[in-house]
């Protein structure tokens, strides 16, 4: 069942996250991302300095089944720039096996969080958080190689692990 609040993918379409990162989907959850007092809000700007530590993450699912687990991906589709995204997507963080209460301390961290570091003179980058429902309560994910962050494809990763996209959020960031 969907949440009773009005959820819309319109900001994801307007900023071309759909189709740059994911296909069209139905939002089934809210996804809150907080860096201190700053909250990601479908494209608002948050500074590089404010985003160097992993954010607080919480989500609310319509009728959450306590047996479901979730996977969170943070990716930058604008590497090294939105005009020339030759390293699309830059993988910043992947956390799997997150319980339905959102407790990341009980989850499987596939790699370490890497804060945004857009190159100079590349304008704004979109930092996208994707929340997926897993098909099983536990996936034995392999650790991700931290040197292979550029060229990651969230869409492909989700397909390989049979993940269903249920929510997304993003912020923008640039080097001044």
Can you describe what's shown?
This protein has 176 residues and is mainly beta. The protein has one domain: Alpha-Beta Complex (Phosphatidylethanolamine-binding Protein). The protein has three helices and eight strands. The protein has helices at 10-14, 17-20, 154-160; strands at residues 29-35, 38-39, 56-61, 69-76, 90-99, 108-109, 125-133, 164-173. A five-stranded antiparallel sheet has the order 6-5-4-7-8. Strand 5 (90-99) and strand 6 form a beta hairpin. The longest helix has 7 residues, at 154-160. The protein is globular and about 45 Å long. The protein starts with 9 loop residues before the first helix and ends with a strand. This is 10921_t:CDS:1.
Estimate the global geometry from the Cα principal axes. Answer: globular
What is the percent of helical residues?
Answer: under 10%
Ends distance: 43 Å
CATH superfamily: PEBP-like
* CATH topology value: Phosphatidylethanolamine-binding Protein
Strands ordered across the widest β-sheet: 6-5-4-7-8
Helix-strand pattern, N to C?
Answer: HHEEEEEEEHE
Q: Low-confidence runs (pLDDT<50, min 5 residues)?
A: 1-5
Q: So how many helices?
A: 3
Report the β-strand fraction as a percent range.
Answer: 25-35%
CATH class: Alpha Beta
Largest sheet: 5 strands, antiparallel
Number of domains: 1
Query: Gyration radius, to the nearest Å?
Result: 15 Å
Structural class by sheet pairing and helices: mainly beta
Instruction: Give the strand tally.
Output: 8
Second-tier CATH architecture? Alpha-Beta Complex
* Mean pLDDT over the residues: 93
Protein name: 10921_t:CDS:1
């Amino acid at each position: 069942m969907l949440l009773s609040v009005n959820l819309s993918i319109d900001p994801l379409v307007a900023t071309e996250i759909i189709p740059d990162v994911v296909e069209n989907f139905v939002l089934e959850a809210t996804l809150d991302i907080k860096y201190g007092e700053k909250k990601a809000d479908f494209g608002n700007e948050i500074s590089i300095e404010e985003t160097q530590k992993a954010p607080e993450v919480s989500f609310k699912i319509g009728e959450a089944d306590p047996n479901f687990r979730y996977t969170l991906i943070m990716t930058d589709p604008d590497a090294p720039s939105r005009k020339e995204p030759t390293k699309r997507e830059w993988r910043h963080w992947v956390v799997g096996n997150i319980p339905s209460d959102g407790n990341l301390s009980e989850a499987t961290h596939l790699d370490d969080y890497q804060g945004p570091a857009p190159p100079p003179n590349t304008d704004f980058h979109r930092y996208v958080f994707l929340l997926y429902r897993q098909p099983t309560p536990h996936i034995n994910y392999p650790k991700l190689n931290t040197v292979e962050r550029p060229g990651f494809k969230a869409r492909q990763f989700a397909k390989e692990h049979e993940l269903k996209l249920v929510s997304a959020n993003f912020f923008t960031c640039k080097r001044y």
